[in-house]
Structure formats: structure tokens, C-alpha cells
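Following up on my earlier thread - several people asked me to post the actual chain instead of describing it. Fair enough. Here it is, all 286 residues.
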Amino acid sequence: MNKALEYVFIELLRNVVQHSRDPLGGVVGAQVNSQGPHAKRPVFQVAVADSGIGIPESLRRMHRADDPREALERSLWPHISGTFPQGLTGSGENAGLGLFFIAEMAKLAKGRMLIATRDAALMLTEAAGVLTERVGPRFLKPDGVGFPGTLVAFEIPIDSIPDFESMKVEIGARARERTPQRVVHRWIRFESVERADLVVRVADLAEDTIRAADLVKTAIRPAIFRGETVLLDFAGVAICTQSFLHALLYEPVRLAWATRTTMHAVNAVPAVLSGVEFLERYALGG
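Reply from S.P.:
Thanks for posting it. Predicted structure:
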């Protein structure tokens, strides 16, 4: 599977599990479409839907976004989530970056993205002239059109998918431009050490945020408090979503800053490295 599509799959399915509150989970579909208007330029298409509470209800606890259209637009901003107030850059459970990263991928790949929830639906599309540095969604008419829970459809032309690693770096840069920065020291060093008290083989966690959070609680956090050396080994990891990195490193980075303890990371490919650097910046920025 293409890395960009794999990333989209993981993030959208995680959103269903973490935020929709749909007891039945979600429905996912994917295809290569080379018919009709796509006959000359085939596209990858991915769609994930649930019948949960919807984005407005999910954001309402922490944000004043009673209007469904306002809630949809805010959901595409970096660091917007129903799990922490606006102005912060994350909580221990969430980074508020999933939909932002997916929307920016659609822009960079010259694709399209549809997101519909409750009484609103918006489209990101090159044809509408809204693929700019800032998200400028085109809301679908008539007013009130939407989806019972949440529907996200993502489409990118097969022949214009940028290199995933460079795309991830660019998206991280775009998010940083819209995120206050206060980092003055790097607490995760991308260098090996002769001896580590705790070695975390990230590939073994297989993008499982629950296992990552449990490992933080049972092993990483105690090691940092004891001033021990923690080594993160990213060997065999080609993709790390920001949601997974958040679960694994958000609290440890903040603890490392508080205790003046450094962690070490090795074998990280450029896309993973940039994701870790980005996480460190926002973890210490709010």
C-alpha cells in the first residue's frame, strides 16, 4: 500500500475508535477509480464513515463551535480536539492533528477531500481554487446537508502522489507556522548511546496507541523519573502517525524537560524523524 494512503487509513480509523462513540465502529472502503471522469487520470479513493456523535458534538466540550460549519472548519486546524482547550497543543491522549495532516496531504497531492458531519459538509478541491497555504473549505449546498455521524472521503491522483517523507516534512512545517513555539532545547537526541537502561523497539508496538500509552505508564515514565537512559529504536518503522507518536512521546518529552533528562532515538527514517521533532516542539509549546 502507498505510504500516504496507509497513513490516511490509520488516522481515520483511529478517529472512529477514539472520538465517534459509535458502538458498532465504522465502515471503510477503498478503490482505484479509472472510470468516467477518471479514465485519463486514475485516482486512489478512501472513505471512512461512522454513525457516532459527529464532529460538532465532539468539539463542543472544549470549544465554542455550535455551528456545524464552524466545527468542520476548525477540525482542519492544527491542534484542535475535543480533548483539550483551544490554545494548547495537546493532552496526554490526543494531539489534534489527524484531520489537519490528511487535509494537507490532499493539498500537496492535488487531490480532493470531503468531510461531512451532521448538518454540514465541505470539500477541499483543486478545482474550487481552495488548495492554498490556509484551508479555505467550500461548503456544499443546500445548507443542512451532511451525514448522520462523520464521513471522510479522500482522493489523490495516482500519478501525482508526492514522496511521502518529503510531504510529511512539509506538513510539519506548515503546522509549525501556525503553532506557538517555546522549545529552546532538544530533549530527544537522534544519536546512539553505549548503554541504555530501557530500549523501546517502536516497531513492536505496531501503531497501537493503547499499548504505547501503557508502556509510557509502566516503563518509560518511571525510567525518566529515575534519571535512566531511554533509547527509542525505530528500526523497521516506515510510518509513524502523529497520533501514535503523541501517545508514545508527548508525556515523556514533557517529563524529560521537567527532569532535565535526555532520551535517544536511533534508526529513524526522515519522515519519522521529522514527526518526532514536530511532536517535541508542540509538546513543549503548550
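The two ends are 35 Å apart (CA to CA). That should answer part of your original question.
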